[in-house]
Amino acid sequence: MSKNTVAYIVSLLILGAAVLLGVTVGTVSISPVVLWNPASDSTAANILWNIRMPRVVLAGLVGAALATAGAAFQGLLKNPLADPYTLGVSSGASVGAVMTLFFGISIPFLGLYTLPVISMLFAILTMFAVIGFAKLVDRSMKMETVILTGIIFSSFLGSVISLMIALTGEELRQIIGWLLGSVSMRGWPYVQMALPFVLIGSFVLWLCRRELNAMLFGEERAKHLGVDVKKWKFIILISGSILTGAAVAVSGTIGFVGLVVPHMTRLLWGADHRHVLPLSFINGAALLIVCDLVSRTIISPTELPVGVITAFIGAPVFAFIFFQQRKGVA
Amino acid sequence: MLEIQELSGGYGDENIVQNVSFRVNKGQMLGILGPNGSGKSTLMKLISGALPFRSGFVKIDGKPITEFGAKELAKEMAVLPQLHAHAFSHTVRETVALGRYPHQSGWFSAWSDEDEFAVTEAMRLMNISHYEKTQIDQMSGGEQQRVFVAQALAQDAPVLLLDEPTNHLDINHQKELLDTIRKQAIDKGLTVISIFHDINLASMYCDELLLLDKGTIVRMGEPHEVVREQDIEMVYKTRISNHPHPELPKPQITLLPGVKRKVPTMLVRPQNFIVTSEFVIYDSPVPLKTVSSAVVNAGAGWFRTFMNRRVDSNYECDDSIQEMKDFIERKGFKPTDTVGMMTAVKTEDVIIKEYTGDFSSLTVAVTAGVGNAVDVSKALDRKEKVGTINTWIMVNGCLSDEAFIQAMITATEAKTKALHQERVMDPLTDTIATGTSTDSCLVAATQQGEYLPYAGPVTELGRLIGIGVFECTVEAIGNYRMAKKA
Predict the structure, then answer these.
(1) Of the candidates B197, B172, B247, which has an alpha carbon nearest to the alpha carbon of residue B35?
(2) Which domain holds residue B335?
(3) How many domains is chain B built from?
(4) pLDDT single digits (tens) B381-404
(5) Under an 8 Å CB criterion, which residues of A touch B?
(6) In this predicted model, what pLDDT tens digit does every residue of B361-373 receive, in sequence order?
């Protein structure tokens, strides 16, 4: 059995286990039997299908979207510290989402999809603003420059959000909970809201797998290998932003998933994007489902925002990668 | 075929490359030379399309490259850039396989047998097949370089652009890589353009060279038209000396250091020669520039020790050169620093004399045995035997290459005249001999003091060599005949 087959089997098993744990563990323990025999315990089945399952699926979708987007951004920018959060794209999407939620914007034909679409638009705008600014600062787009630019934009956009919240005067706890990222109490409509975009975005990025591989050797090299760099770069940035926007619209800003998952995947299974992208998708889903499980059980009955858990894991990983990269250069 | 017409371009508003035109045919290899900052890499980027040019044409088989799509162009032209560091690591196979990118199309594009063959073949050619699963960031610079060359070869494009392909490689891999590219160029009819740092490598492997300076062509043509002292010295602002390659009709250069050779001033004097029953030896405090037809270290070179060793007249040895080297070592000298000759005559009968002229002086040393005297003009078949005239001319002066050769001729003429005077006969033809069957001659110079460009018979140096060799040879023949009578 090839290494890649093993990688997919292991990843899918972990995802399966995560889903199973996600739907059964909680304040009310549910037997897995309910999954295939709802009649055995109708209350439990109700909790499972109407509360836990949408939550788990949503966590999975968000995790998958962020991890896939992170893997693509890292490959494109040749920057192991890039992810939707560190690039400031998540913050951009948040601005869009907060605007939509608190000003009650609804675009006629989009209906339910107004929220993710506006989020995505803001994500795309932020993405291009960050890349454009970083390029102005330093044409070679050094790792630190890009991340610093991302942080600058994040701070600025964060203050825009704070301003909007202050002006609306809504109840703070809920908003802050949303900002820190959470997938609780969202239900099936949110799954429906995110699903098409996550699938389309991930699929398009998977189509860019060979171009991403080529671009790891630099844009000039990729061009010589026959990659239409301008075109593919645009497609990758848009798709990554769509994934980010969709994820942020339904869950707020959950940081570092897009950093941790691709890094671990590469470490274990190699840097080939043909596999890094799908494996990051699967593992991202599993990671966020587990993180969400931890966030709602660790200090039960109180729930932590899942973003707290991912940051708790992700920040040290960020520090570790940064340290390694700098050491590699020195 | 690649054709470049009046190409100009660069970064920003400035034209780094100006009005460059040339064409390279299938199966040909063009080397681009030029000092740092001469625009070599910029020219390469303009040709490869990495940098848009401002005016001119780049055409592949008559079609301008601007009319190719990205993938189409990659099918026609493979580029090896200079090595860069990267953040993520691929395995060797993954890296080489990327070379097949332009040949794959569609969303799910399967890996064809042709792709597999091209990748395996490229890895085999670059001798990296056994590294297949190694991560490239764990490899040395030279190994990575070979991986990227393999990637370019896997691309299977008829035009190959290389930016210093031998960077980071040791001499063995430099040779292997260029041999392979050269062979590919001929076998597959590739058009190869390569930037070179190393003028000698470029001269050896390229059909044509292009010397670039300040973005314009200084000279272009076959290596012998480009690798010329004046042009290279002007463009690189470095003193060089041009000399032929020992095996190929390609010029090679040698750097002449800015720091002058610092050696104590010295003169070769007869009193410094040591004569024993085993050998005549001159051990110089500084290396002398030498041209000789000796047994050990014949040809041209710089040597300190000069030995004329007596061997038995029945001396026979399968490997006389090795035996002589062993002898030199046994006597406490360095075989790499010693010119060694052999003679069957008594070494005590050597004639060593000094001749003084305006420039300084020279010393002639001759041992003569005329038992195997030969009239060379009769060209008879004969067996080679020991018994020989060994002539040394040590000049206190700085000789040109011509002077060395003229000194040899003059010395030979004087030797023949001496044989004539002494009526040394060729026993086979019964005519006057011109020399013996195994004569050796050596001209050495301190390369200090006066510069002596010529040593023909009318120059002072030539006159002294003529009279010196004549006198010493006559006397040495006298000694030999005395010894024979006794």
Answers:
(1) B197
(2) 270-485
(3) 2
(4) 766 665 689 999 999 999 999 999
(5) 74-75, 78-80, 143, 207, 210, 213-214, 216-218, 220-221, 223-229, 266, 270-272, 325, 329
(6) 999 999 998 888 8
